[in-house]
């Protein structure tokens, strides 16, 4: 397609990525993992170019999404992606800081929140010399605890929080969630192939939820022969 928009799959929504926010497997997996319903209002915290906002909006009729993004360039691209798919009437994007959500929204405004946040604490992990890409990869602009504080404020009691993060930081994630009244309820680990150490964790939490965590079957991206797994093909609409 023109103007940088390409279909995500045959007959599916079109998407334009950017050099700072390329299309990522992590967000595709999170969109599939998230359970959303018609008539709900969700928020995508740190939405980037809007892939999560777009996928959830197109998957469920009657769902409205709000993207919140710190970088104006990325927020503008998110708005373009929504407009290109005819979704501007029920989903939109706000340029703003996750740490300042009280200035933008009333408490309990959303049924659920989703986020594919930076994976590395400030000062850890290899960062790009490009300032905007570095902010997309590190917690310099929003820590894990600050993200969970925002979710606690934004989601109604009983609302859900869907997040993808590095498996090695699960302990930190669960502690941050619990400290902000978000009870971990579902966990699915992601590995490149069977026998490999899990690299990602897909987590659902519930605002004011009761204790009790369901561990779902591991998601394998590749079969034993190295080919893309059947479930991965389903998620990418390649079946």
Order of helices and strands: EEHEHEHEEHHEHEEEEH
Q: Give the N-to-C terminal Cα separation.
A: 23 Å
Task: Bin the helical content.
Answer: 25-40%
Describe the biggest sheet? 9 strands, mixed
- Shape designation: globular
Helix/strand structural class: alpha/beta
Q: Any idea what the CATH architecture is?
A: 3-Layer(aba) Sandwich
Total individual domains: 1
Computed CA radius of gyration, to the nearest angstrom: 17 Å
Describe the structure.
- The model has no long low-confidence stretch (mean pLDDT 92).
- The strands form 2 sheets. Strands 3, 4, 5, 6, 7, 8, 9, 10 and 11 form a 9-stranded mixed beta sheet that branches. This protein has a two-stranded antiparallel ribbon with strand order 1-2.
- It has one domain (6-235): Rossmann fold (3-Layer(aba) Sandwich).
- Strand 8 and strand 9 (200-207) form a beta hairpin.
- By secondary structure, it is of the alpha/beta class.
- Helices cover 27% and strands 27% of the residues.
Short account of what is shown:
The chain has 239 residues and is an alpha/beta fold.
What are its keywords?
239 residues, alpha/beta, Rossmann fold, nine-stranded mixed beta sheet, globular
